[in-house]
């Protein structure tokens, strides 16, 4: 079993690598080789008996993706991408990385003619307001950001390339991953994690939108579970609609804060400072709220069932079970 | 008023040119110049007082689209495309013309920084089975052909480029255009017209699918009406969802044949020969049936209201009102 991960230096990529290192297997087979790609060098894990190769550079550059698939990885996790805030700020970069890079990778796989499993991380940003109360699996994607547009185009390619037999693709629309560990990134969704992560570490956090904003979340641990499950799923059970909205916890920001109070007390909640930001609001107001995610649940994808659980996963996985007091 | 038409040598392109020549105006303004583009030289109409320029070549070739928009056309009708059967048979050609060509044109307009109206002909091929009985405007596009995938990606770009203010785009999802005049083309949908057109001219026609197949049609005259209406519509009334499913007549093949009998008699119907074709069936079975088309009707788009009317439009526009007897 040979595994390729693009975007391997990102948060989800690093957690996926750690999980693969721990499991030692994927799809029930021993992992023999890991190819890791990112624009910056991903950290090479030391895993006994596994050949690890590090690749860096621009996926859209001539020849880059051909080199990545030359070793014919059995499973390709395509996580690479410019995040929403950056794709909105830099039009050319977003299209180059998120669309051209994805297409270049898919075309390299097509031309290698060996039909591996490709798992592509799409996003609920493919959806755009207005929405029904709960968004069904059959609801049309009408993105309101360039990032969402690029992800939608990647989904369309994935479905067509799968239909044509070039590879066996599964697109997973990730909800917002929360609580993101570490420093904030440029994603407009950063505050959803910040208002939990910072107070749990005794730091002040900025809330740039109203508490009434409803959004769907899953933990980084769930994101990795989605990826592993998508790698192992029997493609013939999925049918031609290859892009699946993942399950998650749909809550308002107010409910997030109530969960924080239940898990970590009122002192943590007191560290949240409301500073409205019109730029973030302009992006967030077009984002989806709650999802049915019926198909993905039927296909065996699972996530947390409450925001309290999402906070506890963060405390377990990132804080050694400890909360600042 | 300067107008650019890509795909100007195609059936819809030629009819649009004839209509513009007859009207002499678009959006209430006198047409001063017509730029016509296609891969083969479109026929130059002679219109008094209108400068007509003919452009030929591959839209995706370097510099081609920059040259087309250098004269800053006020309205761009982007009709160019490889049809469904051909895009399915020739993967590279389909993506090059339908995706890369469209993106190149949109990017040339973006870089010219003057935000014209762009009317893009998409297709109901963006939808893929299974469907509800009547497909609502909010139903998700899940194409089952490469052609439909390419059109969906064009729609996504159109919406994002419009949102960004690069141009003011309207995407119109054409139903199957019926009755197509002239010879059959490579579209898998060709028989929908053939079974009407050939008998009306005293010729035999092949029906390659079951009479129970339901599909939505509009006449070439309606297609031109959609384009003219889309050019004139106030973009601010459309909102961010720029791609509209056009109205049409949803009927079974059996109902088409009944209409033919009502309009032209049983002798015409006797010229239809049923010869099932699995290749055509494999494509057609994934196609949509009936549409709600609520938004487009509310925005003032109109089509025929019966298949009898579609046949009569063909007899008026193509046969000088005469049917072979």
From TrEMBL, chains A, B:
Is this entry keyworded Ligase? no
Q: Which residues cross the membrane?
A: none
Residues in domain NAD-dependent epimerase/dehydratase?
A: 3-205
The record's annotation in Gene3D superfamilies points to:
NAD(P)-binding Rossmann-like Domain, UDP-galactose 4-epimerase, domain 1
SUPFAM superfamilies listed in its UniProt record? NAD(P)-binding Rossmann-fold domains
Q: Which GO terms describe its molecular function?
A: oxidoreductase activity
Q: What is this protein called?
A: Nucleoside-diphosphate-sugar epimerase
Task: State the species of origin.
Answer: Mesorhizobium tianshanense
